[in-house]
Amino acid sequence: MATGSFAEANRINGSVYRGSFKGDHAAVKVMKGDVSREIDVLRQINHSHIIRLSGFCFHQGITYLVYEYAEKGSLSDWLQNNKMQHEDSYNSTGILDWKQRVQIAYDIVDALNYLHNFTNPPYIHKNLKSSNVLLDSNMRAKVANFGLARSSDTDHSVPVMTRHVVGTYGYMAPEFIETGLITPKLDVFSFGVVLLELMSGKEAIAAKGSNKEGELLSTYINEVLDGENAREKLQWFMDPRLGKGYPIELAYSMAQLAKNCVAHDLNSRPAVADVFMVLSKLLSSSLDWDPSDDLQNSRSLGNGR
């Protein structure tokens, strides 16, 4: 494994470095302390939209985790940090278009649906956020960072509580912050926040200096969709880099889905399987959407006045 002795030039983010093994790129995470949970989880699961653990080793109290390499970096880099605003070999604008965003959302919920419903035991990720979603060379999403993941009972009927509330504010569900309650709806809430990020290009918590400083994206969506002129307000909410390049009715449906996912009451949130079904339909409609159709319709309306 070659990482250039963990040179700064090979640092991807934090303690993760770019390396190569027999000519293939890999990501190497350097960890201190107990990382057995992440290793145990990733050794038991296998899904195209979950980052693959290729191997690991221990040396002098340090663990080296070797993952498949996600060439396009994290979703948060594309949405908020403007690191991808230079010309990209895959995307000449460095901006995710509408269809790519819906595809990424589908990939993420596909991974969550697998974790919640198709593994034995089921798993709750507990730390879903845009920086833990990586993009491969085809701009397909892979959920990463399973250090906080935990298994749950098969029918999710037994409530699990923890006094050790750890996560990223803005993505953590209210019941987890208040009582330490852990259910699959924890991931649903976090996914709703990521969905809102994909739509708006905004951060989970409004940045300092903005007119919404400190406001949670999960709260802001209620202002957008409640009351009159919801579609008009939604257009102001959408990422301005998209311009008019999205179908407003599909965006409205996605915003409603996101709002349901971030409901304060966990019992009002849909199950991941239901979110997956809705997003499957939204993805199909989005892939069929032709921007020229909307342009033609708007011209027809204008001529008919």
UniProtKB/TrEMBL annotation:
SUPFAM superfamilies, per database record: Protein kinase-like (PK-like) (SSF56112)
GO MF term (any one): protein kinase activity
Subcellular locations according to the entry: Cell membrane
Domain Protein kinase, chain residue ranges per copy: 1-283
GO biological process: response to other organism
A Pfam family this chain is assigned to: Pkinase
Main location: membrane
Alphabetical list of InterPro entries matching this protein: Kinase-like_dom_sf (IPR011009), Plant_RLK_LysM (IPR052611), Prot_kinase_dom (IPR000719)
Keywords of this entry: ATP-binding, Cell membrane, Disulfide bond, Membrane, Nucleotide-binding, Signal, Transmembrane, Transmembrane helix
A cellular component term, taken from the record's GO annotations: plasma membrane
Coiled coil: none
The name this protein goes by in its record: Protein kinase domain-containing protein
Species of origin: Fraxinus pennsylvanica
Lineage: Eukaryota, Viridiplantae, Streptophyta, Embryophyta, Tracheophyta
